[in-house]
Every structure is written in structure tokens, then in C-alpha cells.
Amino acid sequence: MMRARQGGDRAGGEADGPFACKGCRCDGADDAATAKKRQRELDTVQRMIGIYCQGHHATERGELCAHCRELSDYVVQRIERCPLTESKTFCSSCPVHCYRPEMRERIREVMRYAGPRMLLVNPGKAFAHALDTMRTRHRSEKKSV
Q1: Residues 54 and 33: beta-carbon distance below 8 Å
Q2: Are the C-beta atoms of residues 48 and 120 closer than 8 Å to each other?
Q3: What pLDDT was estimated at residue 107?
């Protein structure tokens, strides 16, 4: 029986063997900018799940039903383990889709509902999200020219 390897398992965080991670944060290394970006992404998606849960499951603000808590926990796990945080803005623009298909569909539903409502609930986060999206598009257009 194989056990999952965690960051502390490897001596010095060095890649070893044929299953070594390439460009991964297995050693726990994370610069301040990446950590801030990761936290901002977590805050935004959790806020959006909260908006969705309030609207669809009539929960109180700050509370999540079991269904939405499961999605939130899954999203947190995916974002925390993402090796591409430095180079991507959002999971939707990522070249690697690490969400299970059913979870990907659930988060899409949440985003469709909560995205427009973020303008009313938290305009600062909505503006930052739109700005990040425009920057990503601008960078990708520059690379293709």
C-alpha cells in the first residue's frame, strides 16, 4: 500500500525518483507574492460560494450548508496544492484542470450565480477580479503576437 508523500517527507525538498514533482510546492516554498495571490483567490472563491449558498440554500451570511461546505473544502484543497499559482490568474484560465468533472460543474454554477452579485456585495473584489482577467488577456495577446 502506497502512502501519499507530503512536503516534509523529502530531505531538503529535493525532487527524487520518477514521480518527483516538477515546479511544485511540495517543499512548502512559497514567496510572499504567491502566498498573497493564493490567499486572495481563496478569499474570493469562498465569498462567492457564500453568496451562492445564501441565495440557493437560505443560509445565514457566513454560514454554509453541508453541500456548499464540501465544495468549499474541495476548492481550498485544490488552490493550496496548485503548482501554477504564480503563472495563472484563476482556475478557469489554467492549462491544467485539476477539478473532478462534477466539482468543476458545481463551481461553474456558483460562479455564474455569484459573479454578477459580487458587484453589489463586494465591489472591490469584483473590480480586482475583472482587472486580473484583463491583465491575463493582455499578456496572452502579447505572447501570441
Answers
A1: no
A2: no
A3: 94
